[in-house]
Specification:
Blueprint (H helix, E strand, L loop, with lengths): L2 H4 L3 E3 L1 H31 L7 H26 E3 L14 E7 L4 E7 L1 H4 L6 E3 L3 H6 L7 E5 L5 E11 L3
Parallel strand pairs: 1-2, 4-5
Antiparallel strand pairs: 3-4, 3-7, 6-7
Helix pairs in contact: 2-3
């Protein structure tokens, strides 16, 4: 696997993968059929300009189709399990990291996806977030800087890195 494709990989536990796959299958099958039936029933009521049920169903259909696209891409790029052992001790997706801020505060979190956030008690930062990008590839003892959403430059020291146990 090349460096460029590694950036697109989302590491998921088997449970998270199975849950997302089941959600995709439900949305692509029964949920799609149900929303189409609701749109058809609302359309049969007549004047579409003032038909709130029709517009609500169409909006829900759009959101559902967007979620289907998102899940399809996520599952296509996902890898189940832990990142390769070569990544042990290096911050990146699928790793639990502890960082120290300049004021001495420490924070421990998982570098992962929002889908992982649904199945862990840890705080999850996206690998694409400013902090996630800055930490990726760092080793304990390294100091990295990133620009926070408020525009402030923040420097943290990476204290610990370990694989997420799922």
């Amino acid at each position: 696997m090349t460096e460029a494709t590694d950036a697109n990989v989302t590491w998921l536990t088997q449970d998270a993968y199975d849950r997302l796959k089941a959600e995709l299958e439900h949305l692509s099958g029964p949920a799609r059929t149900e929303i189409s039936a609701r749109i058809g029933a609302a359309r049969a009521e007549g004047d579409l300009k003032e038909n709130g049920g029709y517009h609500a169903a169409k909006e829900e259909q759009g959101k559902m189709e967007a979620r289907i696209r998102q899940l399809t891409q996520l599952l296509r790029d996902a890898r189940v399990g832990q990142p390769p052992a070569a990544d042990a001790g290096v911050a990146g997706p699928g790793m639990v990291v502890t960082v120290a801020f300049a004021d001495g505060d420490e924070e421990t979190f998982l570098i992962g996806s929002r889908e992982e956030a649904a199945v862990t008690d840890l705080t999850v930062y996206s690998a694409q977030s400013p902090l996630g990008v800055a930490l990726t590839g760092a080793k304990p003892g390294d100091q990295v800087s990133y620009t926070a959403p408020n525009g402030r430059e923040i420097t943290v020291e990476l204290r610990e890195v370990k694989p997420h146990s799922g």
